[in-house]
Design a protein that fits this description.
CATH architecture of the largest domain: Roll
Distance between the termini: 12 Å
CATH topology of the largest domain: T-fold
Structural class: alpha+beta
Shape: globular
Length: 357
């Protein structure tokens, strides 16, 4: 999927030939009609590059797009940001009145009808949870809450706190019914966290909003999750840089050329904490309730940013061997995993990533 095709050769359209009406158009008249038609078609304006940035969902989101003029670009960008704001109202676990938090406040065991967006993102999350045997799990909200307090206080949660939280964690404790579009939390005190899928989903939806406005040459960057549309004019793709774990600050990033795809990177380059001399990642392991202690970064390329947002976290949790095996088992997925231990950096590529030029 990621081998970019060469542009197809331009092929002039054939003239429409009409017969059976009992008349012919003389060559001179045909030429005059063709000349008039050519004069009546205005020349297309060349596409210009525009960039818009705005904080949303707790991060800076940047839209890069090509449009014929600024008013069209500004209107499309405004619509895309409006879509992102609406999704934040759906998926945020910081907003007490978001749809997600209202769902978590409902009595357990009660089917709750949810919006199409929330059901869609939960359904995709559950598919990844099943594929990964629970390594990816949006029910880790109770662990996330403990870990946020731990990072503020720089004190690990107690074993008793983790044990209590564990009672409400487990992807199989979340039931979805597609027919009624309902969600049921099966045990008390469940809290869902969409931090490992929501940014990619928002980037995809913003890109779709731009396309709906006639702007298909665009890129939406939501922190480490990027949704990529058609390439810039005259280019084969968008050049995306991947900053490698452990690389020097001034080191040139590894680059890939992508179009109509998603790319996500998850790691502890920026979000980590040290407690009692131990390096903990912001990625919480559903098996332990604690942040990962092994230094690992995963970059995933796939058909959309929702998919890659799920999988970069999943591969980090699975580790090199199981992570690459999962990536190779899925269609249209390429993965790059970087680990660092004892001051040494190690790079591992999935089968499809090795095929990317």
């Amino acid at each position: 999927m990621f081998k970019l095709p060469a542009p197809s050769d331009f092929e002039p359209s054939a003239f429409l030939r009409v017969s059976g009406f009992g008349f012919r158009i003389c060559p001179l008249l045909a030429a005059l009609l063709l000349l008039a038609a050519c004069r009546s078609v205005p020349a297309e304006k060349p596409l210009q590059r525009f960039e818009f940035s705005r904080p949303a969902m707790g991060m800076m989101i940047t839209l890069t797009l090509y449009a014929p003029e600024l008013p069209a670009a500004k209107a499309a960008a405004a619509a895309a940001f409006k879509r992102i704001d609406a999704l934040e109202d759906v998926m945020s676990d910081y907003q007490a009145d978001s749809e997600l938090m209202r769902l978590c406040d409902q009595p357990f065991g009660t089917p709750v009808t949810v919006s199409e967006d929330l059901f869609d993102v939960l359904q995709r999350a559950q598919r990844t949870a099943k594929l990964s045997d629970g390594a990816f799990d949006v029910t880790v909200g109770p662990y996330i809450r403990l870990w946020r307090f731990a990072r503020k206080r720089k004190v690990l949660p107690t074993l008793a706190e983790i044990a209590t939280a564990r009672e409400a964690v487990g992807w199989q404790k979340l039931r979805l019914d597609a027919r009624g579009r309902t969600v049921t939390l099966l045990v008390p005190n469940m809290r869902l966290d969409l931090g490992s899928i929501g940014k990619g989903y928002a980037a995809d939806q913003a890109l779709q909003t731009l396309k709906g406005r006639g702007i298909d040459r665009a890129l939406v960057a939501a922190s480490g999750d990027i949704a990529v549309g058609n390439p810039p004019p005259g280019q084969r793709g968008w050049k995306i840089g991947i900053t490698m774990l452990g690389s020097a600050t001034n080191a040139a990033p590894r680059t890939v050329l992508l179009h109509n795809a998603g790319i996500s990177t998850s790691g502890d380059t920026e979000q980590f904490i040290e407690i009692n001399g131990v390096h903990y990642s912001h990625i919480v392991n559903p098996a332990t309730g604690l942040g990962l202690t092994n230094r690992i970064q995963a970059t995933v390329i796939g058909p959309d940013a929702t998919t890659t947002d799920c999988l970069d976290t999943t591969l980090s949790l699975l580790g090199v061997k199981r992570g690459l095996a999962l990536a190779d088992s899925l269609p249209h997925i390429a993965a790059l995993i970087v680990t660092r231990d004892d001051g040494q950096t190690h790079t591992f590529l999935s089968r499809r990533f090795r095929q990317i030029p």
